Amino acid sequence: MSKMKTEVTGDVRVRYAPSPTGFLHIGNAQSALFNYLFAKHYKGTWVLRIEDTDLKRNVPHGEESQMSNLHWLGIDWDEGPDKPKVEYAPYHQKDRVDIYHKYVQKLLDAGLAYKDYTTEEELKQLKEEQVAAHIAPHYDGRWYGATEEQCAEAEKKGLKPAIRLHLREDYVYEWDDMIKGHVAFNSANIGGDFIIEKSNGMATYNFAVVIDDYLMDITHVMRGDDHIANTPKQVAVYEALDIPQPKFGHITLIYSLKTQKKLSKRDKNTLQFISQYRNNGYLSEAILNFTAFLGWSPVGEKEIFSREELIEAYDINRMSVSPAFFDQKKLDWINSEYIKKTDSDELLKRTMELVADGETDVAKAIQDITMDDKAKFMKDIISIYKTEVKTLLDFMKKFVFFGNIKNEEIDYSDFEEFDRESVKKLLAAFKDEVANNEGDLDFNQIISKVGKDTGIKGRDLFMPLNIVFTGSKSAPQITDILGLFNDKADIISVIDRAQAHLGN
Question: Which pTM was predicted?
Answer without folding.
Answer: 0.92
